[in-house]
Amino acid sequence: MENIRIYVEKEDIGKRIDSFLSNELDFSRNKVQIIIEKGFVRNQFHVIDKSSYIIKAEEALSVEIEEPVEIDIIPQNIPINIMFQDEDIVVINKSKGMVVHPGAGNLENTLVNALLYHIKDLSSINGKIRPGIVHRLDKDTSGIIVVAKNDFAHNSLAKQFSDRRVNKKYIGIADGVFHENMGIIERPVARSRKNRQTMAVVSSGRYAKTSFNVIEGYKDYSLINYQIYTGRTHQIRVHSQSIGHPIVGDLTYGGSNKFQVNGQLLHSWYLGITHPTTGKDLSFIAPPPDDFLEVLVCLRQNSLIYINHNDPLLFDLLDIKV
């Protein structure tokens, strides 16, 4: 059995549990109802055995999912960039092109395979397929990810993400010239009805909030600093597409690819958390990968028309590294 822990957010209060879990787990409503009927869903107080159960505030849900076959995830000696490590957490600058955890038909060469080789202990809350994984980055999104080394740290970090107390910033190169230097995108996100492999802005989806600042403007592109307040799948990519500025290289969501990059030019450059044990505020900064910097240099040399370096940390990160 694989156990998945899910924390309820404010906008989820009052929803039916089968509808909520169907969206959260990307399972059909019928499959979720069967899981509930088997007694595999519980909150911190009792088993939830009715699909009509209404979600309440401050609930932490635990869902057990039957694995059709026993899966052994193999530790692999894959190099990873460890930025910080102690007894509770490990912070990694994930490389572009690396999947975070194994899935159907993809059991090797993921971050989890590498973690199992390099890290002695990982939290067990999310089972054997996702040990230590509290949050994710898309395969072709590079940058900072924090991993839990024990269950106490995992619960603490998961609660911070659920309560939106984690500071997450990304930089991306987007298509087009923005007409305003900053803005906030608040549009619900869910699985696309046309293509279940992608996400979309859907009125019945989950609340999602992204703010953006234009850092540099070029003739046909813009360098954007994004901050996300929710953690929906593909959130920045979907929100960027929804305002007419998809991420360069993101062919899934309509991005251009004049520069022939492999995947979207999106990088998680800043992460701020509270340490699970000490309670101290920690922040981490990671430079973008080479393909991102190469495109940035090209744009600066050939079509730079606007600069607004209003974040000292980002200013230093980009100008020292380029």
Textual characterization of the structure:
There is one protein chain. 22% of the residues lie in helices and 27% in strands. It is of the alpha+beta class and 322 residues long. It folds into 3 domains: 2-65, Structural Genomics Hypothetical 15.5 Kd Protein In mrcA-pckA Intergenic Region, Chain A; 81-161, Pseudouridine synthase; 167-321, Pseudouridine synthase (2-Layer Sandwich). A hairpin with a 7-residue loop joins strand 9 and strand 10 (199-201). Helix 1 (17-25) packs across helix 2. The relative contact order is 0.13. The model has no long low-confidence stretch (mean pLDDT 91).
Secondary-structure map with pairings?
Elements: E1 2-7, H1 17-25, H2 29-37, E2 41-42, E3 60-65, E4 81-85, E5 89-94, H3 111-118, E6 142-148, H4 151-162, E7 167-175, E8 182-186, E9 189-191, E10 199-201, E11 209-218, E12 221-228, H5 235-242, E13 266-274, E14 281-285, H6 290-303, E15 304-307, H7 312-321
Parallel strand pairs: 6-13
Antiparallel strand pairs: 1-3, 2-3, 4-5, 5-6, 7-12, 7-13, 8-11, 9-10, 11-12, 11-15, 13-14
